[in-house]
Amino acid sequence: MTVRRDLDYLAARGVLKRVHGGAVSAMPAGVEPPFAARSTAAVEAKRAIAAAAVEQLRDGDSIVLDSGTTALEVARLLRGRTMTVMPLSLQIAQELVDNPGIRLLLPGGEPRKGEQALVGPLTLASLRALRFDVAVLSPCAFSLESGLTAFDLGDAEVKLQALAVATRSIALVDGAKWDRAALAYICPADRPDLIITDPSAPMDERAALAERGVLVQVAGEDQNS
């Protein structure tokens, strides 16, 4: 019943169309789906990816945490951990603000309407002033040819700057984002040190990335199989 209500809510706002047995997107391919729509898509995959990402983070680390629905799942799993985190989203900052183990650093910038992702020169200046152990990125789309991309130019610029100020980088890319490209280029596909995805990601492209020296972890898949 909860899923049905969510679908009805999104259909009423023109985000999707109800069809027999489910729903299909009503958004043009080049338009960023609203945060509310993305937050109800591939939820289990995103949670598994987030859990795998949190396992890569050590207590005491300094983290720059991207905006996006998968990054929000990461923030929710940081309860009980001790680290310094700069979130690039007001939604994620709100998730972390009462976490007693988190030293929360807030960047400046302008929140994008609907997304609440922080962009602009103040955000970039905040990032340039610091150095982080890990950047956890959540791109909008991913392909071997187009690399990591985002729908918004300012968002792509912030993501690239986050990469530049971190020693290590982790990209959270659920299977639905593979073989896709959005408007704004962030970086090559082999730029992140680790890509965490789910079993629906194309196996041949995972293998191609491994040949380029990129570590690809499949969340929810038996790593010993």
From TrEMBL:
Coiled coil: none annotated. Keywords: DNA-binding, Transcription, Transcription regulation. Pfam families: DeoRC, HTH_DeoR. SUPFAM superfamilies: NagB/RpiA/CoA transferase-like (SSF100950). Residues 1-25 form the HTH deoR-type domain. The keyword Zinc does not apply. GO terms for molecular function: DNA binding. This is DeoR/GlpR family DNA-binding transcription regulator.
